[in-house]
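Support request from a user on the community tier.

User writes: "When I paste my structure tokens into the form, the page sometimes reloads and wipes my input. The last time it worked, I copied everything first. Here is what I submitted, just in case something in the input itself triggers the reload:"
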């Protein structure tokens, strides 16, 4: 507890101006009371708005001299998302894997040409449940004191590894949380991706493979994971992620729509851009996802109710065609359950981030009615 508070104070002092404590002064040796005073005298800065779209969305070299791969240093965070892992390992994100929402939007646009409203939507929905609203920092991996002092429980602020929002069952290259490690590259699962690419893609990963492999992953979890669940909001990321490798991991000078498996492994396992990698040409989001959903027209969000092979639909979950049910439930259930009664700057920070989430939802074309769990 003490050490995390000290780190928070150090971070805060680095980030913001504090009259009582010159930025260069060491905090080592301060009493608990002195540290508390340092923390409470920190001037809270409201989170800045997310950036707009890139001015130039053409393909370009992103594995350039200014962004070399560097291996992890002790304490660096990496997690379930191969794209964010890669961006951190090349310095498009802070290499320690601790980032602000604005840094993440900038990085996914610059490095992969992710469409602006979609990037904002992904970032603010994960940040609100897995990031620290007050310090404005999120871990792209596990829980760490580097995101600062936690707000009161039941808030978790536990990074992208947390099994409660985007992270969830049926990942392509990560095991279900029931089997233990829910975020590291898993060779057994990657070999299934390879097998399906050979069977349906002539050795490449394409939309046809994405659909067949997603169907397999769902059936596989129903049959083997007694605690399997696939409901909103994870439902949406599971289907979108299936097409991300086709949309973003293929070099921007190649328009074939067929992803080479060594290139796939470079991202999924090694967290590295292939040599000379160019980002895609023109920004895009989850185009191609219809190919995946078309293969499973009768699929409903749900869970194994009592052990393996006991899948039942969950009528309270939004379906893939109900983005506003997703938005309202996400805010009123998921976020509200983590932050039942926020006060002070925590409440202000939540309201601002909720506003950014809503604006992204509207920009992405979903005309949902805004909800205000903490007042207007
Ligand atoms: C915009 C911010 C982003 C956030 C916050 C984010 C977050 C996540 C999270 C939490 C997961 C884990 C889901 C799971 O359990 O499988 C994930 C998986 C994934 N992400 Fe991201 N992501 C972002 C952007 C991207 C981008 C730009 C790409 C592609 C270039 C991408 C590609 C993937 C893929 C392919 C997976 C699936 C991994 C697997 O199933 O093995 N993500 N992401
Ligand atoms: C990899 O995934 C498989 C299948 O989902 C699982 O049985 C296995 O335990 C995982 N391996 C590791 C090291 O987590
Ligand atoms: C997922 O992995 C993280 C990091 O190892 C761990 O803290 C968390 O408990 C795991 N989630 C579940 C549900 O097992
Ligand atoms: C995927 O690859 C297979 C084998 O080459 C091909 O038949 C199929 O049309 C491809 N699908 C897409 C969407 O490119
Ligand atoms: C992954 O990294 C290992 C170790 O550096 C290297 O031998 C291998 O060629 C890399 N594979 C890919 C596909 O990048
Ligand atoms: C990118 O797309 C634009 C517009 O479709 C096209 O004019 C340009 O040649 C493409 N660039 C590359 C590198 O493929």
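"...and here is what came back when it finally went through:"
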């Amino acid at each position: 507890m003490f050490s995390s508070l000290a780190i928070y104070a150090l971070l805060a002092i680095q980030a913001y101006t504090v009259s009582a404590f010159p930025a260069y002064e060491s905090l080592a040796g301060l009493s608990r009371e002195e540290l508390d005073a340092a923390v409470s005298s920190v001037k809270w800065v409201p989170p800045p708005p997310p950036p707009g779209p890139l001015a130039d969305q053409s393909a370009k070299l992103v594995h350039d001299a200014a962004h070399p791969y560097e291996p992890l240093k002790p304490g660096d965070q990496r997690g379930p998302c191969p794209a964010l892992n890669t961006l951190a390992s090349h310095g498009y994100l802070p290499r320690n894997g601790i980032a602000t929402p604005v840094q993440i939007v900038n990085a996914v646009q610059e490095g992969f040409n992710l469409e602006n409203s979609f990037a904002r939507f992904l970032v603010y929905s994960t940040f609100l449940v897995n990031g620290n609203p007050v310090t404005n920092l999120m871990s792209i991996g596990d829980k760490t004191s580097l995101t600062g002092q936690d707000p009161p429980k039941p808030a978790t602020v536990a990074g992208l590894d947390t099994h409660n929002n985007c992270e969830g069952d049926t990942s392509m290259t990560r095991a279900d949380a029931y089997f233990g490690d829910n975020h590291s590259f898993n060779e057994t699962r990657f070999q299934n991706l390879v097998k399906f690419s050979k069977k349906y893609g002539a050795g490449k990963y394409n939309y046809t493979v994405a659909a067949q492999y997603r169907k397999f992953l769902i059936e596989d979890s129903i049959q083997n994971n007694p605690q399997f669940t696939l409901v909103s909001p994870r439902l949406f990321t599971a289907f979108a992620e299936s097409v991300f490798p086709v949309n973003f991991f293929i070099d921007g000078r190649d328009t074939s729509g067929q992803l080479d498996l060594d290139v796939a492994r470079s991202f999924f396992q090694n967290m590295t851009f292939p040599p000379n990698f160019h980002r895609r040409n023109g920004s895009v989001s989850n185009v191609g996802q219809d190919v995946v959903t078309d293969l499973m027209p009768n699929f409903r969000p749900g869970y194994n109710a009592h052990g393996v092979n006991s899948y039942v639909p969950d009528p309270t979950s939004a379906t893939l065609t109900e983005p506003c049910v997703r938005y309202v439930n996400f805010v009123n259930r998921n976020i509200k359950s983590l932050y039942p009664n926020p006060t002070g700057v925590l409440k202000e920070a939540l309201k601002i981030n909720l506003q950014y989430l809503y604006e992204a939802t509207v920009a992405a074309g979903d005309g949902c009615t805004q909800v205000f769990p903490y007042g207007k």
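Agent notes: The reload is a front-end session timeout and is unrelated to the input. The pocket of 2-acetamido-2-deoxy-beta-D-glucopyranose (ligand 3) is lined by residues 142, 161, 163, 177, 182-183 (CB under 6 Å). The longest strand covers residues 302-304. Escalated to web team.
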